[in-house]
Amino acid sequence: MKKVNNIAVLTSGGDAPGMNAAIRAVVRTGIYHQLNVYGVMYGYRGMLTGDIFPMENQTVANIIQRGGTILKTARCKEFYEYEGRKKAYENLKKFGIDGIVVIGGDGSFKGAQKFSTEFDIPCIGLPGTIDKDIAGSDFTIGFDTAVNTAVEAIDKIRDTADAHDRLFIIEVMGRDAGYIALHSGIATGAENILMPERKTNIEDIIDDLQANERRQKLVNLIVVAEGDEFGGANEVAKAVKERLPHLDTRVCILGHIQRGGSPTCLDRLVASRMGYAAVMALLDGEHHNNMIGIVNNQIEYTPLDHAVKATQKIDPEWFKIVKILAS
Ligand code: F6P
């Protein structure tokens, strides 16, 4: 197994709170083990343009608590093509880079896998996404912060909903996964949670709202995942307004505030542990081209070409709990 001397770290795809904590862990673990560590700006785009710079312990001072990513991020189409990856390799060669840590989602890992097979540079993936939609880890960097941001926002919405006796339909992020919706909906006592992993029956929602009205429950919160098949909060509101026009209904789309902000303690811990494990994996040589995950509180390795989107298996009991607790 080739010895690794010069490693690079980059963030790719949508940013997620905790990415900076992961960068810090990679840089400081690498330097501790006498590696040269380079930062690549704007994800794979920086590999193509040669936007690469040496990092020191000092470069990552005062960032553990910051959202976003000091390395910036981008989605890079050119890297999907062989010619683009070749250009990236040539740039890395100039710095003697012989190991890479990619912090991002499953799309970023697919690029890393291709690259490392073609050019024999080991890559390690760290799951960084607020959507938590990656198989092989109980945690992804950023999810806990995003879900807590959603909870804080929904709690505030509940205050104003309560003051006006309103129905609020709140849309949360998650792309085609409903983890943010499920967690934030349960934690805020939402009356209904709509998500892609579960069939949405608008008639059931109308029935619930009518039943709530009969028993004079005047505040109703419905949390909708953006990827729900019904088409998001505006579509749900349209259907509700058609059937129950007398209800005072409002829509709130939380949007990108869920991606920003200071990472929670959990995200900082997960990012620090994963960042450390990524460098150790590059050094031990046994886990090259794997994604680092945490499963049952243990570090787990998933080959990058197996790192796929997780499909959430929802225990139906959760929905029983939602119903009982919203009564
Ligand atoms: O994957 C993270 C995410 O925030 C998704 O939840 C959302 O669908 C998407 O990125 C938004 O992407 P963009 O910032 O490019 O609009």
UniProtKB/TrEMBL annotation:
Active-site residues, record numbering mapped to chain: D131 (proton acceptor)
Keyword Cytoplasm set for record: yes
UniProt keyword annotations, A-Z: Allosteric enzyme, ATP-binding, Cytoplasm, Glycolysis, Kinase, Magnesium, Metal-binding, Nucleotide-binding, Transferase
Enzyme nomenclature, EC number: 2.7.1.11
A Pfam family hit: PFK
Origin: domain of life: Bacteria
Cofactor(s), names only, from the UniProt record: Mg(2+)
Catalytic activities: beta-D-fructose 6-phosphate + ATP = beta-D-fructose 1,6-bisphosphate + ADP + H(+)
Chain residues that bind substrate: T129, I130, D131, R166, M173, G174, R175, E226, R250, H256, I257, Q258, R259
Binding site for ADP: R24, A25, V26, V27, R28, R158, G189, A190, E191, R215, K217, L218, V219
Listed GO biological process terms: canonical glycolysis; fructose 1,6-bisphosphate metabolic process; fructose 6-phosphate metabolic process
Record: residues binding Mg(2+): D106
Pathway: Carbohydrate degradation; glycolysis; D-glyceraldehyde 3-phosphate and glycerone phosphate from D-glucose: step 3/4
Compartments in which it is found: Cytoplasm
Entry GO terms, CC: 6-phosphofructokinase complex
Family: Belongs to the phosphofructokinase type A (PFKA) family. ATP-dependent PFK group I subfamily. Prokaryotic clade 'B1' sub-subfamily.
Function statement: Catalyzes the phosphorylation of D-fructose 6-phosphate to fructose 1,6-bisphosphate by ATP, the first committing step of glycolysis.
Record-given protein name: ATP-dependent 6-phosphofructokinase
UniProt source species: Chitinophaga caeni
